[in-house]
Amino acid sequence: MPKPEKLLDPVKVAVTGAAGNIAYSLLWRLAAGEVYGPQQPISLHLLEIEAAQQAARGVEMELLDSAFPLLADIKVTTDPREAFEDVSAAFLVGAQPRSKGMERSDLLMANAAIFSEQGAALNEVARRDVRVVVVGNPANTNVLIASSNAPDLDPQRFTALMRLDHNRTVSQLSSKLHLPVADFARIAVWGNHSASQFPDISYATAGDKKVTELVDTQWVEDYLIPTVARRGAEIIEVRGSSSAASAAAAAIDHMRDWVHGVEDPAHWRTAGVYSDGSYGIAEGLFVGFPTRAVAGDWEIVADLEVTDAQQARIQASVEELKAERDMVADLLK
Ligand code: NAX
C-alpha cells in the first residue's frame, strides 16, 4: 500500500463481536484502509461481552503487532455507549448463536435484547450520519430492532448485510459462464438473509449480453437460486464452521460502496435497507432490494418491471420478515 501523504483526523469505527470469527478477518481489512482509503487513519472500537474480553485483548495485541500505518488507536470495551461514542460506522457482528435445542423464536428474542440495547446506545452517542451494518443473524430483524430503538437516527443510516448473498450470486454466474465477476451488472437478491431469499437475475447483464439469454431457466430455478440461498449451510458442512472471511469481505464491500458510491449506474448492489413501500413491500421492514450506492446513500432501484412469478418469490420472503417482526413486536418502539 502506498505511504499516506497527508493524514486526516482518524475516523472512528465500531466492531461488535470483536473476538469472533468474522471480526478476525474484518478488523485487519479495516485497519489496512480498505473502506476509507489510504489517506484516512482509523480508530477501532471493539465491543465484546465480558466472557470474551480476554480474547478481545488478544485481538487488540495482534492488531498492534501488525503495525498498520493507518491504525491510530484501539479501544476494547463491554459497554455499547463507550464503543459507539462518536462513531462514523458500526459493524454489528456480535450476536447470540443458535444453541442446541433453541427454537427460532428464542434466538430472535435473545438477539432482540442485544440489538435494542445497541440501538439505544447508537441513538445516544453515535454521529448523526453514522452508517450501521448489521451482520449478526437474524440480520434483517436485528437491524429493525436496532433502528426502532434509535428514534433520533434516520432509519436509512441502518442496513442489514445482504452483500454476501449478492456476491455469491455473481460468483455462481461467473463460474457457470466462465466470465469475470466484474462483467456482471443489474443483479440483486430480494428479501431476507435466509433460505427464503430470492437471488434475481431477471435484469442481469454480462457485458452487452442479457444473462437470461446465456443460461436456461431450469438451471436458475433448480440450481442457482437454491445454491445461493443454502450456501451458508453448505459452507458449514464443507468447512466445518460458518462463513467468516467471505462475510467480512462482503461487509467491507458494503461499507466501502456506501461511503464512496459506485459510479456505474448499472452496477447495482444488494443491501438490506429500510423499505419505503417500493414494489409493494411493507414499509418499515429492512429488506434486500436492488440498490445503487449514490452520493453516500443507498437508493432503491426504481421502476423495475416485476412479473407475477418474481413477485410471488419476493412476497414469500417478505412474509417471513413480517413473521419475525411480529415475534419481537414488544421490543419495537
Ligand atoms: P462468532 O461466534 O465467532 O463470534 C461472535 C462474537 O460475538 C463472539 O465473540 C461473542 O462473544 C460476541 N458477542 C455475542 N454477544 C455480543 C454482544 N452483546 N456484544 C458484543 N459482542 C457479542 O460468530 P461469527 O462467525 O463471527 O458470526 C457472527 C454473526 O454473523 C453470527 O450471528 C452469524 O450468524 C452472522 N453471519 C451473518 C452473515 C450475513 O451475511 N449477514 C454471514 C456470516 C454469518 O453467518
From TrEMBL:
The active site is at residue 193. GO terms for molecular function: L-malate dehydrogenase (NAD+) activity. PANTHER family: MALATE DEHYDROGENASE. Substrate binds at residues 98, 104, 137, 168. It catalyses: (S)-malate + NAD(+) = oxaloacetate + NADH + H(+). Residues 11-151 form the Lactate/malate dehydrogenase N-terminal domain. Pfam families: Ldh_1_C (PF02866), Ldh_1_N (PF00056). Its EC number is 1.1.1.37. Gene3D superfamilies: Lactate dehydrogenase/glycoside hydrolase, family 4, C-terminal, NAD(P)-binding Rossmann-like Domain. This is Malate dehydrogenase. NAD(+) binds at residues 17-23, 111, 118, 135-137. Keywords: NAD, Oxidoreductase, Tricarboxylic acid cycle. Residues 163-327 form the Lactate/malate dehydrogenase C-terminal domain. Belongs to the LDH/MDH superfamily. MDH type 2 family. One of its GO terms (biological process) is tricarboxylic acid cycle. It comes from Corynebacterium ammoniagenes. Catalyzes the reversible oxidation of malate to oxaloacetate. HAMAP family: Malate_dehydrog_2.
